[in-house]
Amino acid sequence: MAFITSGAAAVSGASLTARRAFTGAAVCPVPSGRTSPAAATWSMSAGGLRTFLVGGNWKCNLSKDAITSLCKELAAAPDLETDKVEVVLAPPTPYLDHTRSVLRQDFEVAAQNIWVGGPGAYTGETAAEMIKDVGCTWVILGHSERRNLPQIRESDDFIAQKTKTALSHGLKVMFCIGETLEEREEGRTLDVCVRQLHALAETIGADDWKDVVIAYEPVWAIGTGKIATPDQVEEVHEKIRHYLAGDVNDKVAQETRILYGGSVSPGNCNELAQLPDVDGFLVGGASLKASFLEVIESFKSDLAATV
Ligand code: PGA
């Protein structure tokens, strides 16, 4: 949970304790035809409460037996206070149904992909209706492995269309964005994130954002053990919020949860959880072990930093 309270927004650097209101001029690119967020004001009274969310992306890993064992280990932890933390696990498609049947009921299940349209003659695809039918409530879309793997190469527009399809079927979406190492080194981090988000903003309505969680995942930090520094993370998250104020509206900027992803582990999650604009994590490798419970527990660090 993170509150934005008072003070001017900094455009670089991060404070682990500050909770900020934005009242300043635009600091990030706003696509043409949209207004800048110069008049934006975010405050607690405007409803700045964002429940911490931890997602586990199992990618193309685990077997049916391994999932059963992991779910048993995860069941040992106390019940979630779901007003303080939400947990969503994303198994490979063939194990969605099984995972839903063996996973504790206070954790939700996400698919890692869906087809852009309805059921029909689409060999190898999985429609949103089918995902819902087996008890999934979420889908991860726009993951960098689907954007960037040369065999897949999903475009911004395709991902935005899939997101629209998911939302129209009542699925919530973890919408992943992030820059490659090359793009960061060329100083294009924000341009890339804005381009990816703008494709979505053009495709869904302002009311649809309530079911979207953004996962900022710098590609160079995924699966590499190279974690972005707290300053790097907060700077991008804050600018994403600023962008949302300009391209969508203040309410969406204030209420949309922004997760960080990329080599998150029990060892680094507590420091990152305290950042004002970090509302949870999307976790790959570290979600394959029972110690993932320690990442979930980092919501307490977020609450402790909330003033
Ligand atoms: P990682 O993956 O935690 O293994 O870096 C994160 C992700 O790809 O979502």
TrEMBL record:
GO cellular component: cytosol
Pfam families per UniProt: TIM
EC number: 5.3.1.1
Annotated metabolic or biological route of this protein: Carbohydrate biosynthesis; gluconeogenesis; Carbohydrate degradation; glycolysis; D-glyceraldehyde 3-phosphate from glycerone phosphate: step 1/1
InterPro entries noted in UniProt: Aldolase_TIM, TIM_sf, TrioseP_Isoase_bac/euk, Triosephosphate_isomerase, Triosephosphate_isomerase_AS
Record's keyword annotation contains Ligase: no
Chemical reaction(s) catalysed: D-glyceraldehyde 3-phosphate = dihydroxyacetone phosphate
Top-level taxonomic group: Eukaryota
Biological process, per Gene Ontology: gluconeogenesis; glyceraldehyde-3-phosphate biosynthetic process; glycerol catabolic process; glycolytic process
Homology family: Belongs to the triosephosphate isomerase family.
Quaternary organization: Homodimer.
Name of the protein in its database record: Triosephosphate isomerase
Classification of source organism: Eukaryota, Rhodophyta, Bangiophyceae, Bangiales, Bangiaceae
